[in-house]
Specification:
mainly beta, 2 domains, eight-stranded antiparallel beta sheet
């Protein structure tokens, strides 16, 4: 919450007025992804399955100064064969380690003991999508959940990784090959390993980040997320830090139509290739870069 002081003075009296302004406008989704406008370029979307026909549109407020995401969502659950929840996500490829902090306890009006704040990997934005998720439950548990094929019942390992915790709590979900592993932490530095689950059936890219469901179709819950991080990924892109990326550039800063190609290498060097260069020259350049380990 950002605060502003307004002072008015006169010859006889001084008036003091304190007004509260929200950190940013609440963004809502009725089913189409919407840009949140944060550093990570997350998209926000409502996902509603066949049990969520009366689910109200969820909302999210991003506070740029505090780097918090206050999400409010109803939804019957992330479970069964289809899910009802709100999702703020980015596209990632290959191996990764997603991390987030849950700052506060769930707040109503929903009263379900199984509201879920989730660090989720999802294959698609359909209600029945495959997913691997590490979640905190409002009754005080942390556990892995997964759906291995489209529109089958979500499952879990059968045991909680944590039974009873206090806020804030950090969640982490790593992908190495086809295996997803959950971790939890009280400080975001020392991690306790939790459950793992393997599924080779995910496409590329996958959708990663934060999700919320109240486990009540029409009554929402609210959670404050912060400390979002995907080490090794450049915020706002699908490029891993340290990998070469490609970008269109213009010699004179003009339209992209007149641009060539600029390669940004691992060591920070930039190689600009003029528009219209022949294929043989491009192949030679690529071979040289490969020989240099770029």
């Amino acid at each position: 919450m950002a605060w502003r002081n307004l002072f008015f003075s006169g010859t006889v009296s001084v008036f003091f007025l304190l007004l509260a302004f929200p950190a940013g406008p609440q963004i809502t989704s009725s089913g189409e992804p919407i840009d949140i406008g944060d550093t990570w370029n997350l998209q926000f979307v409502k996902i509603a399955g066949h049990s969520d026909q009366n689910m109200p549109d969820p909302g999210i407020i991003y506070d740029e100064d505090a780097e918090t995401y206050t999400m409010t969502s109803a939804g019957h659950d992330i479970w069964d064969t289809q899910d009802g929840f709100a999702f703020a996500y980015m596209a990632v490829d290959g191996d990764f380690s997603g991390r987030v902090r849950l700052d506060t306890d769930f707040t109503g009006p929903a009263t379900s003991a199984y509201s879920k704040a989730v660090l989720m990997v999802r294959d698609s934005l359909t209600p029945g999508s495959k997913h691997a998720s590490y979640c905190a439950v409002s009754s005080g548990f942390v556990a892995m959940m997964f759906r291995d094929s489209e529109s089958v019942v979500t499952d879990w390992p059968g045991a909680w990784d944590v039974s009873g915790f206090s806020y804030p709590i950090y969640l982490r979900l790593d992908r190495v090959g086809d295996t997803f592993t959950g971790y939890h932490s009280t400080d975001g530095e020392a991690w306790t390993v939790g459950s793992s689950h393997s599924n080779p059936n995910f496409s590329e890219p996958v959708y990663l980040e934060i999700a919320l469901t109240s486990q009540e179709e029409t009554n929402p819950t609210t959670m404050v997320f912060s400390h979002i991080n995907v080490p090794g990924y450049e915020p706002g892109t699908r490029a891993k830090a340290g990998q070469a990326t490609f970008a269109l550039v213009s010699e004179d800063g003009g339209e992209l139509a007149s641009a060539g190609i600029e390669l940004v290498l691992r060591d920070g060097r930039r190689l600009r290739i003029a528009k219209g260069v022949d294929e043989e020259t491009l192949r030679t350049v690529i071979a040289v870069l490969r020989d240099e380990g770029c």
